[in-house]
Design goal:
- The protein is an all-alpha fold.
- 72% of the residues lie in helices and 0% in strands.
- The radius of gyration is 21 Å and the shape is globular.
- The protein starts with 10 loop residues before the first helix and ends in an 8-residue tail after the last helix.
């Protein structure tokens, strides 16, 4: 008997998973980078609004593609026909690597927060403990992990909005900041960085084989989840910009905890920010592991990755081999981040690569819209042709702008990484060592 994944994920869980991956504590590190570069509050607000709007539009492209290909392979299948097998594989593998790098940053952040709030154990051990619990939850079953994700995601969204609104409108321990002057170069540069806010939302598309309604459920869940994420991080960014001095932001890896100390001084509530941050890490790890493991599982099933990664647990019907593989890889990356204490480059690399990936996905949606008949696209977006042309151009420009305004190592990793992987997969494909199953 051939084992298959279970279709149990309802719409609310799909919304929660869409929001869950981006709702990471490490987002506060990208907020720090943005605050240091925008120069004014109006630039900060416009940059997050723009990034939210364009990511909502690219989610429509994802929606069309997942309605055509409800596959755990996700991006790899979406890009295969318009861009070719080798490049599609290279971009998919690079995407997994980037996501795992982001997971390492998240573990670094989570460990530092728990070390601050609880103490007892060194931060690194707290990071491993969180990751271990999340992987175990996912191995036991996708339904359990879906319920877990839904609860913690909505808790985080509501908590962040409440704390941010309180900070912006009801705290007066600092002079008014003012909106400042508008600079469009700063706005678009910061928008490119704020793409990190939404990193990994597309991993929900890898659950096409487990969603009850993949034709409409996943396509509708993504823009709704992104909208709520955008609102949440606009408020959080403004709160940090207004309440935390620049000099303090330059010297901390836990800006959210610093914000809590500034706005809740004299009460017993600063610990609340720490609790929210810890739950955010659980949310990000859970949603991230849930989605990425399905892509690794699919690539193992196809023979692109080692075949054992395509195994499914006989009792729980979950891709346990890919989950355990990701567990080991993320632990190694976490150790490296703790040792080097370098996170900014990874944030910028992830934001840049995501921008290019969104451009490629938009192009793929455009390609399919022109090649397929309307009835062959279950989730057909009206005006999609124009939308996808515009979004492809915008994300290409944002990615290029981020590479031009970042350190050389960011551009080198993104460009060389894709080039080397393309050569590797081209060699494996030509030599017949690459799996060809779809």
């Amino acid at each position: 008997m051939v084992l298959t994944l279970n279709r149990r994920l309802k719409f609310t869980r799909l919304v929660a998973i869409t929001m869950g991956t981006p709702l990471a504590s490490s987002v506060f590190l990208s907020i720090t980078i943005m605050v240091l570069m925008v120069g004014s509050l109006i630039n900060l607000i416009f940059s997050v609004i723009i990034s939210t709007a364009v990511v909502i539009l690219v989610s429509l492209a994802y929606g069309e593609l997942v309605s055509i290909y409800p596959s755990a392979a996700g991006n790899r299948i979406f890009l295969k026909k318009p861009m070719g097998n080798t490049l599609a594989l290279s971009l998919s593998v690079m995407w997994v690597i980037i996501i795992l790098g982001a997971a390492g940053i998240e573990a670094y952040m989570a460990g530092n927060v728990l070390g601050y709030v609880v103490g007892i154990l060194p931060p690194f051990f707290w990071s491993i403990l969180i990751l271990s619990v999340v992987v175990l939850i996912n191995i036991v079953g996708v339904e359990i992990s879906g319920n877990f994700q839904m609860f913690i995601t909505f808790f985080v969204i509501v908590s962040l909005i409440v704390v941010s609104v309180y900070s912006i409108f009801f705290v007066s321990n600092a002079p008014p900041v003012g909106f400042g002057s508008l600079n469009w170069l700063s706005v678009f540069s910061a928008s490119a960085v704020s793409i990190y806010f939404f990193i990994g939302f597309g991993r929900v598309t890898t659950l096409g084989e487990e969603a009850i309604d993949y034709r409409k459920g996943i396509p509708r869940a993504m823009p709704l989840g992104i909208f709520f994420i955008g609102i949440t991080f606009i408020l959080a960014s403004v709160a940090i910009f207004e309440r935390v001095p620049i000099s303090v932001l330059q010297n901390t890896v836990i800006p959210q905890i610093v914000l809590g100390n500034y706005i809740l001084t004299g009460t017993k509530l600063p610990i609340l920010i720490g609790i929210i941050s810890i739950v955010m890490s659980f949310s990000a790890f859970n949603a991230g592991i849930l989605g990425t493991s399905r892509l690794v599982y699919a690539l193992g099933r196809e023979g692109v990755f080692p075949k054992f990664l395509g195994n499914i647990h006989k009792r729980f019907l979950t891709p346990y081999a890919s989950l355990l593989f990701l567990y080991v890889v993320v632990m190694i990356i976490t150790a490296v981040v703790f040792f080097t204490k370098n996170y900014s480059a990874i944030v910028l690399i992830a934001a840049a690569f995501d921008s290019f990936m969104y451009a490629f996905v938009s192009y793929s949606a455009l390609w399919h819209k022109r090649k397929l008949k309307k009835q062959e696209i279950p989730f057909d977006v009206r005006g999609g042709t124009v939308i996808y042309i515009v979004i492809t151009a915008i994300f290409m420009l944002l990615g290029i702008l981020l590479l031009l305004t970042s350190t050389a190592e960011v551009a080198i990793v993104v460009i060389v990484g894709v080039f080397v992987l393309s050569l590797l997969y081209y060699y494996l494909y030509k030599s017949g060592r690459l799996g060809t199953r779809r």
